[in-house]
Task: structure prediction
Amino acid sequence: MKKIIRNADVLYQGTLQKLDVLFDENQIIEVGVNIQEECEVIDAAGLTLLPGLVDVHVHFRQPGHEEKETIHTGSLAAAHGGFTSVFAMPNVVPSPDGKEVMEEYLKLIGKESVVHTYPYGTITKKEQGKELSDLDGMSQLGVHWFSDDGVGMNDQNLLKEAFEKGKQDNFIIACHTEDLKYRPQGGSVHDSKIVTEKGWIGIPDECESEPLKNDLQTALAVNGKYHACHISSHLSVEALREAKQKGGDVSAEVTVHHLLLEDKDVKGPMWKMNPPLRTHEDRMCLIEALEDGTLDFIANDHAPHAMSDKARPMSNSAFGIVSLETAFPLLYSEFVYRTKRWTLNQLVEWMSEKPAKRFGLNHVGKIEKGYTSDMFLVQLNQESMINADTFVSKGKNTPFNGWSVYAEIKQTIVNGKTVWKG
Ligand SMILES: [Zn+2]
Result:
């Protein structure tokens, strides 16, 4: 059934323009001035229409930890944040490491998700790093994204094998890089004076950058398609820059919180994430690396937890924060509205078209004829406050509660259908 959005400021060919957008459940049919068509009208006066956002790093917790989040609540949180395509990390129970488990998982997603949810398969069985998962079996189901997020790949021979297998079907191998020898020490913050003075245990840059260097070396050696998750350190940025200069098929994401927060902001477990918030210099380095293309795009690492998992001493409280519902408002407010460092188009490219392209989603990330009818309407430049009580995610664990923002998502459309309306 055809519908038309009228009177919105549409992000079209890089700039905001007053245009009509005609679409059906498959695609955008026409973008133009005064389109003549008798169909359902969505009057979007005063609102801005943007392409649906894409996030390659979310944790939906189901199956296994439905008390923290379900596919349904997680996908609603995505829609509330303007996200229409998300890639769900495989640290769920049972582990999606073979064809049969993945088949069940895909069925559950089909039933529960209100946005496009693409599940990662694990690289190794149960993310134990010992034996390769059935990558071919999962690939037959259309899954071409694999990750052992949460631990990462520390066996380079296995990683090499995964790259080799992936060549035919163009797999992307996404790695969380962490030297696990630091884990038992209970590290919870960046290893800098500013936080260790408070008695918390630090996690050094090398914990991330050294395993990343190993991964990049392997990727370069076999021309593997590699994606680095949540880069936080300037040392990692240097390693990525070098790998890209050598022609590696590598990409990397930076999270919303690493772009906005630093070690000096850490007040307690609500600021604890893995990798940790690092120094001011690191944060500036991440912003510049995103701008110069060393880091490719932005991701959330949406990690919902029960408050009881967070309300513990720093050393054993859970890692991670929720992010889907606050990502766009926070980044828009800081980098477009307040500091004017980025254009709206730059921000949207980093949150939509660029991740879509790298992860093989075709015709996603633009409002243009022939593109998928995934979009969202947002009210820009009016102040509101972030209030965790209004989140549809089960997780309320955010360090951004009470922050003032200048973007409020009003309506999200997936496959031509409204899945969120504020
Ligand atoms: Zn991770």
